[in-house]
C-alpha cells in the first residue's frame, strides 16, 4: 500500500496485511498450527540467540520515528529471522498485530485475553499506586492479585492529584462497564501528567473510530479484543496500544516469558473479524444510540408510554454516553457513543423478568458480538444494583430491536401491576 495515500479504517482492516506472510499471494492466511519450526539445513544460516537479537535491533533501528509505517516490512513477517517457537512469535499473530497497528495508528501487542493484557500492562508499569473507579470487576481482580504480590496501593478514581506520585497509574475505563457512560480523558491525562503518573484508558466499550484516547493524552490504551474487534463471540484476546517503540519491545519481551501470546487459531479468528469490524462497530453504535433514546423516552414521557402500552414509571434510569450532557463527550467520541447501554427498572423482581420477555436478545454475559445480548447484571457482578440491566447491541435491524424492547416492557408492566408473570418466550 502506498505511503502517499491516507486510507480509511475499513480499507486498512482488509488490505493492511496484503502481500505480508509466507505466501504473499494468499487472500486469507493459513492457520499455522505448529508450535516449533526446524532450523535451516545449511549451518551457515544458523543464528545464535545473540545474533537473532542483533538482527531484530537492526530492524528496529532502521526507522527512528515513533510512527507506524504502512509499508510492508518484508515478505517474511518475522523480518527474515526464522521462526523458532510459537511462545516467542508465530506468523498469524504477527499478521494480526500488523493489521491492527495500521488501523489504530499505534504499536499493538496482543495477548491471550483482555485480562492477560491488563495484567501485563500493570506489571510493565509497576506502579506503587493505582487510581481506578468501579468499572469492570475483572480488572479489579487483576489488581487484587498484584496487590497481594507487591503491596500496590489502590486509590479511588477521584483521588486528589496530590495523592499521585511519579510512576503511579490512573486506570480509566471509558465508557465504563456496565453503564456505558463516559469520563473526560483529557482531564485525567492532565491530572496524571501533572504528577508524573501514567494514564491508561480501557477503551473496550468504544474502540476506533468511536474514540482515540491518544488524542486526549492517554499514554497507553487497553482493549479486550474478545469484544468488538473479535465481534463473533468465538475468541479470547487482549490488546495493548502504545506510541512508544521501547515500551512495545519491553512488553513483547515480557510476554515471551509470561506465555501470553494468542494461539494461532484465536489470532486467525481475530484477523477474519477485522475484515468487517468497521461495518459492525458503526452499525452497533448507531443502533445503541437509537435504543437509548427510546428507553429514555419511556423513562420521561408518560404520554408516549401510554401510546405504546408501557406502564409509566416502569423505566427509572437509562445510561449511555449519548445521553450525557457533558461538553467533552461529543469531542471525545466523534465516531459514535458505543454499543453498550444500561437501564434500571422499578423493582428487582421486574428487572429479573425483562430478559425472558425479549426474543432477539440472548440472555448472556459479555458483549461485542453480532448478536444482541442482555444481562441481568447481578448474575455476574455482585457490586451492582439488582435493578440494573446491561444491553450489548448487535447487528440486527434497529426497528426489530426497538419493537422487541417495547413488547418486553409491556410484559414487564403487566407483571408489575398484577404480580403474575406475563407470557414469556419460554412459555
From TrEMBL:
Its cofactor is pyridoxal 5'-phosphate. The keyword Transmembrane helix does not apply. Keywords: Pyridoxal phosphate. Belongs to the trans-sulfuration enzymes family. PANTHER family: CYSTATHIONINE GAMMA-SYNTHASE (AFU_ORTHOLOGUE AFUA_7G01590) (PTHR11808:SF35), TRANS-SULFURATION ENZYME FAMILY MEMBER (PTHR11808). The keyword Methyltransferase does not apply. PROSITE patterns: CYS_MET_METAB_PP. GO terms for cellular component: cytoplasm. The lineage of its organism: Eukaryota, Amoebozoa, Evosea, Variosea, Cavosteliida. GO terms for molecular function: carbon-sulfur lyase activity; pyridoxal phosphate binding. GO terms for biological process: transsulfuration. This is Cystathionine gamma-synthase.
